[in-house]
C-alpha cells in the first residue's frame, strides 16, 4: 500500500511540474503597417486603440467570427532572426482581423508593438 501511495505522489509531482512549464499557445507574429482604420472590430473609432498603440490583428484561428474583438493577449517572444527577444512580454488588444489572405502569422502586431520588422516565434495567452 505504501508503495502505491509513493507511486501516486511521484506521478502527481511529475504531472504538476509538466503543467507548470506550459504557459500558453505557440505561434508566430509579424507586423502590419498603417493605415489601421477602418478595422473589422470598431470601424473608424480612434478610441478602440489602447494606450501606447499596442494592438494586433489576428488570423482566422483566433478571430472566432469576430468574438476576438477586444480580447487581450500577453505575448512572449521566444525566438527570431538576429535575437529580437530583448523584451520578454507585451500585452496587446485585438482590434482587427488579419488583412492578408492567407495571413502571414498567427498575430500581426502594430508597428508600435513590434519594431523589429521580422517574423518571430511567440507564446501567447489570453
How would you describe this structure in keywords?
globular; 6-stranded mixed β-barrel; alpha/beta; 126 residues; Barwin-like endoglucanases; 6 strands; disordered N terminus
Describe this entry's structure for a reader.
The protein has 126 residues and is α/β, with parallel strands linked by helices. The protein has a single domain (25-125), classed as Barwin-like endoglucanases. 19% of the residues lie in helices and 29% in strands. It is built from 2 helices and 6 strands; from the N terminus they run αββαββββ. The chain has helices at 2-21, 60-63, and strands spanning 25-31, 55-58, 72-79, 89-97, 107-109, 120-125. Strands 1-5-2-4-3-6 form a 6-stranded mixed β-barrel. The longest helix has 20 residues, at 2-21.
Summarize the structure in short.
With 126 residues, the chain is an alpha/beta fold. It has helices spanning 2-21, 60-63; strands spanning 25-31, 55-58, 72-79, 89-97, 107-109, 120-125. The N and C termini lie far apart (43 Å).
Amino acid at each position: 500500500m505504501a508503495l502505491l501511495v509513493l507511486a501516486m505522489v511521484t506521478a502527481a509531482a511529475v504531472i504538476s511540474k509538466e503543467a507548470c512549464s506550459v504557459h500558453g499557445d505557440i505561434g508566430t507574429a509579424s507586423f502590419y503597417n498603417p493605415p489601421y482604420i477602418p478595422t473589422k472590430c470598431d470601424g473608424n473609432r480612434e478610441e478602440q486603440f489602447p494606450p501606447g498603440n499596442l494592438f494586433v490583428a489576428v488570423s482566422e484561428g483566433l478571430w472566432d467570427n469576430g468574438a476576438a474583438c477586444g480580447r487581450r493577449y500577453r505575448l512572449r517572444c521566444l525566438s527570431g532572426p538576429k535575437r529580437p527577444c530583448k523584451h520578454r512580454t507585451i500585452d496587446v488588444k485585438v482590434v482587427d482581423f488579419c488583412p492578408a489572405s492567407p495571413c502571414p502569422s498567427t498575430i500581426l502586431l502594430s508597428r508600435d508593438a513590434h519594431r523589429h520588422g521580422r517574423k518571430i516565434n511567440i507564446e501567447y495567452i489570453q
